[in-house]
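Researcher: Next sequence.
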Amino acid sequence: LDSPLEYKKGESQTNVEITDEEDWNTLLKMEEEYVENMCMEIIAFKPDIVITEKGVSDLAQHYFAKANITAFRRLRKTDNNRVARATGATIVSRTDEIREEDIGTGCGLFEMRKIGEEYFAFFEECKDPKACTIILRGGSKDVLNEIERNLSDAMQVVRNVVFDPRLLPGGGATEMAVSVGLRKAGLKLEGIQQGPFLAVGEAMEVIPRTLSQNCGVSVIRTVTQLRAKHAAAYEEAEKTGGEDAFPKCNWGIDGTTGKLVDMEEFGIWEPFSVKIQTIKTAVESACMILRIDDIVSGSKKRGH
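Model: Next structure:
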């Protein structure tokens, strides 16, 4: 529900003058009947749990308790939408508009559990849920924030793979393959046209070089060995399939040991869309720096 299960208060200040004690009792009785009617309209469908974004009066809780119904109040709208999607329910604005198909029957188990110092409501064993909740716990707020950021990154990776299921080998294998390809293409050109190809090819090696530095191994030896493997695969592809052949070499650097491993066997893959966006951003940033004609200084030289 997104409506209150309590007597409606006037939107503006309202004064009522009562001359008889019975009139006061009549007012209280009308309020109780109003709440009772709302509760009976809900109880008629025999639900187990009632959730509303607004308040629930003590009288309404009494009627629900007698009907063995658990009631939650003041739930955030976003959480209410998630519960509705998980259980198959429909959010209703008025109790007299509730239909049988609005009742969510997808939840198999409801429990209240205490985690740490707080109680949490668990809706489990849902049939074909369209939403779920992940509980993160950490020793401190900083640790918890870091875990949340890591989870968000992982979810975005999954999202990217779902929208674009193409993958590329990680561990610097893709960057080294592009670097070798650009160097080979640059050597076929003459003069100043070689410069951009060779410069971008050298810049691409920054990823395997950084991985080697982080592992503490010899950077020059490791990068040279990796470059040699990709160059050998490139030459072999040219011999067997001509100049337009696509070399297949998935060798990269193990980020833990610093050894060269086959990323296909090692199981390290990166989303194609992220890799392409990284390369585009790097090239555009370099072009933007090259477009700068002069540096504007904020200070003036003092006259002598």
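Model: The chain has a mean pLDDT of 84. The chain has ten helices and eight strands.
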